[in-house]
Structure formats: C-alpha cells, structure tokens
From TrEMBL:
GO cellular component: endoplasmic reticulum membrane
Coiled coil: none
Domain of life where this protein originates: Eukaryota
Protein name: Alpha-1,3/1,6-mannosyltransferase ALG2
Domain Glycosyl transferase family: 222-394
InterPro entries: ALG2 (IPR027054), Glyco_trans_1 (IPR001296), Glyco_trans_4-like_N (IPR028098)
Keywords in alphabetical order: Endoplasmic reticulum, Glycosyltransferase, Membrane, Transferase, Transmembrane, Transmembrane helix
A GO MF label: GDP-Man:Man(2)GlcNAc(2)-PP-Dol alpha-1,6-mannosyltransferase activity
Length: 418
C-alpha cells in the first residue's frame, strides 16, 4: 500500500520539469542526505518533486524529509535471506525493481525525469514507459566493490548481480558521481562503460539548519571538567573503521600528562538501525574495545542522534575524527568544517578533495599513531582549532555551497529534456 504526504513546491511547476526520485531506504546515511538535498534543491527551483522509497520512517530520517512528498511501496519485501544479512544485494534489487514497477503502473504519477541512486537495476523498468522517461543515475560508488567474495558460492551469487549493475548503469541517460575519486573508480570497475565519462557533482551542505540552530549545552553527554572534546560521526559499520578512533585515544593517553589526559573525551556518534544486524553487532564490539582498553570514563556512545544534537556536538568539539578509508565522498567533513571544526581524516578517497591538509585539518595514514599525533597538536596549541575552523568554513562556502549544487543539478536535469 502506498503512503502519501503532501509537500509544497515553489515556482511554476507547469513550466518546470517534473522529477521523481527513487531510493531504496530513506534513512540517515550520506546517500539519503544527498537525495534529500537534491530533491529540495529542485523543488526550490520550481520543479515538481516526489520521492518514492521502499522504506520511510519519519522518526529515523532527516527532519527536512517532511518538506518533500514521500511515498512508499514494497516494504513488505524482505531485506535479506536468513540471518547475517545474507542476500541483501539481491533483495535490494528485487525491492527497487518492484518499487519502479509500482510507480510506473500503479503509482498514478506524471513525471519527466527519474533520479535514482545506489541500485541501477530499476532503470530498465522505466524504459517500459509509454512516454519515454529520462533517467539520471547518481553513482555513490560501484556496489560490486562494497562486498567481499571469500567463497566460491559468494562469487557465484555475485556474478549475475555484478553484471546487472554494470549493464543497467550504462542504460542511464546521464551518470553523475560524487567525487573525482569515485569517477576514477567507476572507469576502472565498469570496463564495458569505458566510453562513458561520468560528471562529478559534489554533494553540498544544506546550511540552513546549521545557521538557524541554537546549540544546546552538552552537560548530559560530556562529563564535567572535559576541555578537549573529540567527535566521531559515522554509521556503526565495520567498514567505517570506528575502532581507529578508540585505538588513537589509547595511543594519545601515552602522549599526554595525566592532567591533560583527564580533560580529553571522545563521543562516538553514529547512525544506528536495530533492523540492521551489523549495526547492533558492531556497537557491542566497540563497547567491548572500550572496556578492555580502560576507556570507560573517556568515551560516550550516542546512537541515532538528532540534527540538533549533531550541531551542538560540532559546535562544542575540538576536532572531528573521520576514520573510513577510501570513503567515496563523506558529508561529515563538510558539516564539521562549516561549523568551524577541524577534521582529522584518512588520506584517501573523498576527504582528499574536501579537507586541505594543515589548513582545514589533517590528512593521516589510517593508523593510531598518526591520528593521535594529529589530535595532540590541538591539545598543545588550542588556538589551532580557531585558525583551521575559519579556513574550513571558508572552503565549504567556496567549493560546496548549496547554490552551486542546486544550479548544477538543475542544469543536468533540464539538459535531459532538450
């Protein structure tokens, strides 16, 4: 059964493209943030916008989702086959194909352009439309690189899925990626699409909520007497390498006097969905690391925090620890820099294009020693936060503004209809 909520758009929708967004699960990750920002951007330009998704929970989604019409279909289909997340890719493909079929034949929607991301298997469905639809595919990262193939059965299972991903991605009328890093990986991975040069559309930062929010006090999250607040923001997934932040904290303990060490505190804030087994398991794994390392008084875990909590944390912290390697882009560094908070990130992937080493933060090897050395610099020289913070905000305004994102995306959409 489809759900419908009213939304409001601006401008003359009759003269503007009608755009339908298709997304697997409208949660709180970076992909969801980009889809929502893209929908809001086109809506602000007068486009008629709808988001269709297989799952939407207003209580576990960015608050701005209430400003866009959201419809759901297919949440009754399984997310996996059995325990341990097995068959997640196949189920995601089935859910998205069903969603596309529902939109096309039962959704009673009129639209000119389809914007989809993450799962390209739904693209051929829209080729069945009586009135041809233009399709824009946003590739966050090739899905076939996001899974391990450590057995023959897994390789056998993934082979047709990988082929479908590559073939259907090539059916899109326009392909965008989130960074130069992803563009290079796209070319290396999809050999049959070597003739395609995807355009880079950097995610933007919707600064409205940041500018309007009044930060709360952190007394309920941070113990009294803490001066140096370190912040990690990422989903509770193993690939995010969150343990690196804890290991760096252990290393830092050996570098500081007991007086300085007692003023250090780390908050591990992360997206958490109890439906996702890995979120549940990894959260417990990290808690075990904290207990074994004797960090209990120096670490606070925060799951599925609110936007207001995030802004308050970014406003009050000394620096952000961004631990994933080969991150496709990463919106957290932009959020931190806009809030004048320096970033310590791994020197690979998207952060190479967002963080300027020794100017807006530090780019480090993904090991505890280098991360702890970078953290120590902020403790030895507290003025570094303000200097790097100002440079970080200036960089976000210059290179990752919502105005630039909106204009670029609007141009890509309107060119499809020429």
């Amino acid at each position: 059964m489809a759900e419908k909520r009213d939304g409001d758009g601006n401008g003359d929708s009759a003269a503007k493209p009608s755009v339908l967004f298709l997304h697997p699960d409208l949660g709180v990750g970076g992909a969801e943030r980009l889809v929502l920002d893209a929908a809001l951007a086109l809506q602000a330009r007068g486009c008629s916008v709808r988001i269709w998704t297989a799952h939407y929970d207003p209580g576990h989604c960015f608050s701005e989702s209430r400003r866009v019409p959201v419809r759901c279909a297919g949440d009754w289909l399984p997310r996996g086959l059995g325990g341990g997340g097995r068959g997640a890719a196949l189920c995601a493909y089935v859910r998205m194909v069903f969603l596309a079929l529902y939109v096309l034949f039962l959704g009673d929607e009129e639209f000119d352009v389809v914007v989809c991301d993450q799962v390209s298997a739904c693209i051929p469905v829209f080729k069945l439309a009586r009135r041809r639809k233009k399709i824009l595919f946003y590739c966050h990262f090739p899905d076939l690189l996001l899974t391990r193939r450590d057995s023959f059965l897994k390789r056998l299972y993934r082979a047709p899925i990988d082929w479908v991903e590559e073939y259907t991605t090539g059916m899109a009328d326009c392909i965008l990626v989130n960074s130069q890093f992803t563009a290079a990986i796209f070319k290396q991975t999809f050999k049959s699409l070597s003739h395609i040069d995807p355009d880079v559309l950097y995610p933007s930062l919707n600064v409205t909520s940041f500018d309007s929010a009044v930060p709360d006090k952190l007394d309920d999250l941070v113990p009294e007497g803490k001066k140096f607040l370190l912040l990690s923001i990422n989903r509770y997934e193993r690939k995010k390498n969150l343990a690196l932040a804890l290991e760096a904290l252990v290393e830092l303990r050996g570098r500081l006097t007991s007086q300085d060490w007692d003023r250090v505190h780390l908050i591990m804030a992360g997206g958490y969905d109890e439906r996702v087994l890995e979120n549940v398991e990894h959260y417990e794994e990290l808690k075990t690391v904290v207990q074994r390392s004797g960090l209990g008084q120096y670490v606070t875990f925060l799951r599925s925090f609110s936007d207001r909590q995030k802004i308050s944390l970014l406003h009050g912290c000394t620096c952000v620890l961004y631990t994933p390697s080969n991150e496709h882009f990463g919106i957290v560094p932009l959020e931190a820099m806009y809030m004048q908070c320096p970033v310590i990130a791994v020197n690979s992937g998207g952060p190479l294009e967002s963080v300027v080493h020794s100017v807006t933060g530090f780019l480090c090897e993904p090991d505890p020693t280098h991360f702890s050395e970078a953290i120590e610099k902020f403790i030895r020289d507290p003025s570094l936060k303000a200097t790097m913070g100002r440079a970080g905000r200036a960089r976000v305004k210059e290179k990752f503004s919502s105005e630039a994102f909106t204009e670029q995306l609007y141009q890509y959409v309107t060119k499809l209809l020429v």
